[in-house]
Amino acid sequence: MRAIAQHSVSGRLITVLGLLLFLGFFLFPIAYLLATSFKTPDEVLTGTFLPRAPVLHNWPEAFSLVPLAGYLKNSVVVSILAGLLTLLISVPLTYSVEKLRLTGNWLPNLVLASYMAPPVVALLPLFFMLRVSGLLNTLAGLVLVYGIMNIPVAFWLLRPFIRQIPRDLDEASWMDGAGFWKTLIVVNVPLLAPALVSSGIICMILSYNEFLFASTFTFDDDVRTLTVGVSLFQGERLVNFGQMAVASLSAILPVYFVALFFQRWLIGGLTHGSVK
User: Fold this and answer.
1) Measured at the alpha carbon of residue 67, what is the angle toward residues 66 and 72, in degrees to the nearest 5?
2) In 3D, which of 258, 216, 25 has the Cα closest to residue 120?
3) What does the alpha-carbon distance between residue 186 and residue 191 come to, in Å, rounded to a whole number?
4) What is the DSSP string of 160-196?
5) According to the model, what pLDDT value does residue 24 have?
6) The dihedral formed by the CA atoms of 106, 111, 117 and 121, expressed in degrees to the nearest 10
7) Backbone φ/ψ region at 40: left (φ over 0), alpha (ψ -120 to 50), beta
């Protein structure tokens, strides 16, 4: 019994140490950014972790030199609208593929293959499409691009959820005279609530973190996003690491807060779709 107890204690100790190491791996970059935000440019180059003489001017200067608050508002608006657009397209698409069986395996494979391609491949065609349609350098253009770009992610996240809904419910609704949209909205959407929350949040975070399209399709401060704003602290000859650290913290903290606040829905939604 003593040997079993010692083995149990040692196992728990190893588990705790592993979790602490795993947690430190993710928290160290944030701690380093926070420490860098209180350093002078010369002290950053020394490579020390903690500032020897902390300074506070990086925080107000970062928000005065670059309109970070406006960039944050644009990122939030674009990510929310793009996530909603993705769900509006992905839910009926996934429902049609899984329940109506309109296609074989070629469409899901095609959707997955489209997401495997590097985004830079679509950069030039999307640029000309947005310019011709008048959506270049607009928030609406970013919403459209992100909303379509994340369809493969939402499709593969929603697919196991929709597959688990009994087909008898759809057939009973059809026999009662309900059409495609009424069956989808009244019968399936309430059962898909956990999946919609988790998929929507993931797609919003992907849109929020995107940089390539945002830096290429936006030119004015009133439509730029926060990821682009972080890069503006890099000049031609020097980088103000302290102010860039402030901007980076301003960009990642909202994502952490959203993940922590919705973690129950995220974990519950994703795990529910993986278990029958």
Assistant:
1) 120
2) 216
3) 9
4) HHHHHS-HHHHHHHHHTT--HHHIIIIIIHHHTHHHH
5) 85
6) 110
7) beta
Contact 251, 66 (CB under 8 A): no
Q: What angle do CA 4, 6, 8 make, to 5 degrees?
A: 70
Query: What pTM value is reported for the model?
Result: 0.86
Q: Are 134 and 147 in contact (CB under 8 A)?
A: no
Single-letter amino acid, residue 21: L
CA pair distance 39, 35, nearest whole angstrom:
7
Distance CA 44, CA 251 (A): 20
Tokens in use for 154?
A: 């939402």
**Model confidence pLDDT, tens digit, residues 5-24:** 555 667 788 888 888 888 88
Token pair of 131, please?
Answer: 């310019």
The 8-class DSSP code of residue 225 comes to -
230: Cβ–Cβ under 8 A, 6 or more apart, which residues?
244, 247, 248, 251
Residues 6+ apart with CB under 8 A from 91: 158, 184, 189, 192, 196
Q: Give the pLDDT of residue 174.
A: 84
Triad 261, 29, 234: Cα angle to 5°: 110
Q: Decide: helix, strand or coil at residue 232.
A: coil
